[in-house]
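Give me the 3D structure for Agenet domain-containing protein.
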Amino acid sequence: MPSKSNSKSKTPVPPYLRSGVNVEVCSDEEGFRGSWFTATIVRRASAKEPNKYLIEYHKLYGDESGKKHLREVVDATQIRPEAPREKERKFGFSEHVDALSNDGWWEGVITEECQNGKFAVFFRRSREQIVFEAKDLRLHREWVDGEWKPPLEAASEEFEVLKSPQMSDANSESVKEKFSKEMLVEVMKSPHMSDANSESVKGQFSKGMLVEVSSDEDGLKGAWFAATIVEVVGKDKYLVQYESLKTEDDTGFLREEIDILHIRPRPPETIVVDCFKLMDEVDAHYNDAWWLGLIYKVRPNSRYVVYFKDTNEELVFNHSDLRIHQDWIDGKWITASQGLA
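Predicted structure for Agenet domain-containing protein (341 residues):
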């Protein structure tokens, strides 16, 4: 029998998790999921928790005076290197981007090229559109297996990590205390967001219509369930019957009142894909719903590994259980630019 060794093998610490390194940290708090804030690694939290790190935010503060930078213990899975960006880049309609707002990077999709070099960005989680200048945008990238995907564009010889401007003392409250409502200060008022058009969008939903319904419940966020509108029950409210969700006593299909923010038509089946590519945004059919994910690996025989950011899970799907992801924005279907060719 081999003798026992008192020494324990240690997994090498990635360079970006070493003390003093600048990183980006995501939050699991309600209202902040999907956002990334710059911080510095202070040290590993403790020997008993080797995967947790003490970090200090650059622009989040732990006091009202804005002099003491907020420190938190976070899991290594919430940390990544600072994302690179091309120094100069022309953005376009439907591109998947990160937008800098209140000192954090928020994932969205460009829905309109506005005047004066500005762009309207739609945020799926808050279902809001906000106008940004190009300097406050970067191409959205994922940190996968120690690499940025998509990589920096070949035409760009230089890149930079954006250093967000210093906050004045007067505005140095903790972002986490004020974001949810005060961030949305420049909501776009483009022609397709006029009141008249908003009414036409509402008018698209009627009794008997086939729709998809989303939920804000924990464990169900990001999923869309097939349903049928039973009747209109009030202003911006609808009674729907699900096609796959049953009542608690299993005697029939579940009915529920849904507001207009959580309902959309069935996506059109006009986009036919022979094969998906790495980093394509897709909807995967799982547990009777469609879930937003990314193609993480391409396997033989039309099978794919899909990564779900909200749950940090990877699952394997057949081609037939996937569809290109589309967003329903102000009465129009928008498809984000897809992944790596």
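The longest strand covers residues 49-61. Let me know if you want a second pass.
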